[in-house]
Amino acid sequence: MVDRWLSERARAAEAVVEGGFDLTECVREPIHLLGGVQSHGALVAVDPASGLVVVAAENTGEILGVEAAELVGAPVTRVLPEEDYAEAVTGTAGTDAVPVTLPVLVDFGGAGRSVDVSAHRRDGLLILEFEPRESDALAFGTFYTGIRRALARLRAAGSVADCCGIAVREMRSLTGFDRVVAYRFDGEDGPGEVVGEDVAPGWEPWLGLWFPATDIPPQARRLYRENWIRVIGDVDDVTVGLRPSRRPDTGEPLDLSLAALRTVSGFHLEYLRNIGVRSSMSVSVMREGKLWGLIACHGALPLRPAPEVRSACEMFGVAFSLQLSAIEERERADALTDSGQRAASVARLLEDGLERRFAERGGEVTELLDADGVLLSRGGRTVGSGDALPAELVRELGRRAAALAPGEVWDTDRLSELPEDELPYTPASPEEGPAGILMVPLSRSGDFLAWARRERPAPRRWAADPWAPVRVGPRGERLTPRGSGEVFRATMRGRSLPWTTRDRTAARELWRLLTELVLRHADAVETLNDELRMTNLDLDGFAHAAAHDLKEPLRGISNAATFAIEDAPAGLDGTTVRRLLTMQRLAGRMDELLNSLLHYARLGRSGLRLRELELSHVLDTALEVAGPRLAEEGVRLVRGELPPVRADADRLYEILVNLLVNAAKYAREGDADRWVEVSARVAPAEDAAGQPDGAGQVVVVVRDNGIGIAPERQHEVFDLFRRLHGPTERGGGTGVGLAVVKRIVERHGGRLWVESVPGRGSAFCFTLEGSQPSASPADG
């Protein structure tokens, strides 16, 4: 995690300087296990089961009157009255890890001494921190009034900027520090920007400056999330060690994550000295469980706020965090009203066939979020408007969408900086593809609606050169964020305009409306399908029954004509014989038509057995029937590349037989070289609106050099019982073959079309839904 944080930040412009000072030491430093406390107070760790001291600060003699060597292993009641110890045990007994503070009078060399005791539990121990009270002059009434006034002003803030401005002014008034800033992180592990400031005269203003992410490494951010407040009374304070330095039961240093007296990293002290700060206090600002930023306080002189002041500041930080959340909720409510109306107007444009209307009105959907492009991915098909998304990104977004709940908005304004475990996609360059994506999943199967924004290079004013967080100072290479008052200007690349609460609300509202629309259409389609299913059953039943009922009288007519011809006296005139033969021929023709009708009806009732097939094997089988007819007409077969396809083997065989027999029937007369070619090519699949969706699809082609079909007649060849030649021309036939082929292809979810030039041959092309290339066959 640390290595990834450093490398990402280095690539983003906060790199480590080669040689000398190694910034990784700062990032890896276990600042909660430094084994010491600030010297103005003392710390004791107690086993709450026995009441015996396990660890004590080396200065307990100075602060509490009992040396650490005597105190370790002894009852804690030697330095803390029994009733106060009992209160500390009771107050920290719950699961809440928030420290409790007690004003206590301890026995110090026979005299009473006022101390503030803070108690919390950590890893099975009760941690007690003792801070001598320097003055009781704090007027509670005045202090309480100030806190109430500060909170009232904070509640009145109507925007984040107002909230930050009020927070820094009130915090400086409460504490007396010289500079107080509101510092907002650009992402939990990113750099920070000063968005609010109240500063004493003569101090350099920082408002609007950015500071590198390395200023606050990951382990410090973790502690800020865990402990709301952190005070450093004097950067030149001498750290007091602990006795023993490691816990006897675990062999590990005492965990001081929640300790107010926890000593300070030498790196951080160096940092503060280099910016001219003698004392500091930081209050965490949280939003939705994440670290939003800090209220950072700096003093030119040593300053140790009293416990009640720290408690007030901590409470103020909580109130500030809540107010930020309230402002965001208000913005979300306002956005819902505004975005709901705009989303509803866009949704109405898409009512009549979602994909088709989306292709036509995608511009309005794009403008809804002020984006540069939009993409709808549904059922494996895509349709978009504006800037196109790379195919690889579309696939990764589909995987990401499948892992999210429908309607759960996911967005980023820095696509190139996302970790691989979140979205394994890396743009080739900032200029190629989008920099920001906002996506809302439509279903759990990976359907989604996504908006894209291009890169928007943003100027930033850095407090120091972010490429060089380490500078050479008086003591060699050190972490020096401010070498002078000079501002370093740079441009942030690879980011889009950030997505706002209004954008997210509009996307979620459009998802809700589209879901209702799709469900409404699904109900309507299901009703129509039920009606169509019944109609088809009725039609199939009618065709089957009619064909059977008609075949019997036809057979009787044919037989009667045959018997009349055979049994008639020899003197039967020629006209009557011709009429009887015509009757017999027409009855046979009608029988063929009824057989074709029966076959066509059966295609609508029979199910498909889909599986992966070798197209070359199915062609071999089809040639057992069609081969002799091709040979009879002198038509040679040419094989192109034939990839595997997913189809019903019997139905695909029937398609090939019909198309090959047609090639034999309509071969060009007098041509010495007659041929028919069966091949396949890969073409882009199309979405519901007929637009390419980027995925490859196998197209099977049966091409000949026969007589061809006139352009104005090409749409007729797939009609049932439709022949472009006379019944006795070109080998006869019923005109059902190509209608059967069309129905089989459509039953597979594919498409059939013809490309033909009169006198130069025809190419019958068809696709089978789901047949995608495993390798790229040559284009045919």
Report a brief summary of the structure.
The protein is an alpha+beta fold and 780 residues long. It has 17 helices and 29 strands. The protein is 39% helix and 24% strand.
Question: What do these coordinates show?
Answer:
The chain is of the alpha+beta class and 780 residues long. It folds into 5 domains: 1-30 and 138-235 and 277-349 and 456-499, GAF domain (Beta-Lactamase, 2-Layer Sandwich); 36-132, 2-Layer Sandwich (Beta-Lactamase); 352-455, 2-Layer Sandwich (Beta-Lactamase); 523-604, Helix Hairpins (Orthogonal Bundle), CATH 1.10.287; 608-767, 2-Layer Sandwich (Heat Shock Protein 90). It is built from 17 helices and 29 strands. The strands form 7 sheets. A 7-stranded antiparallel sheet has the order 1-11-3-2-6-5-4. Strand 2 and strand 3 form a beta hairpin. Helix 6 packs parallel to helix 10, helix 7 runs antiparallel to helix 10 and helix 14 (574-605) packs parallel to helix 17. The longest helix has 67 residues, at 501-567. It starts with a helix and ends in a 13-residue tail after the last strand. The model is unreliable at 1-26, 470-480, 687-691 and 774-780 (pLDDT under 50).
Keywords:
single chain, about 775 residues, alpha+beta, Beta-Lactamase, seven-stranded antiparallel sheet, six-stranded antiparallel sheet, disordered N terminus
Give the low-confidence spans.
Answer: 1-26, 470-480, 687-691, 774-780
* Beta-strand content bin: 15-25%
- CATH level-4 homologous superfamily of the largest domain: GAF domain
- Give the distance, in angstroms, between the N- and C-terminal Cα atoms: 51 Å
Total number of helices: 17
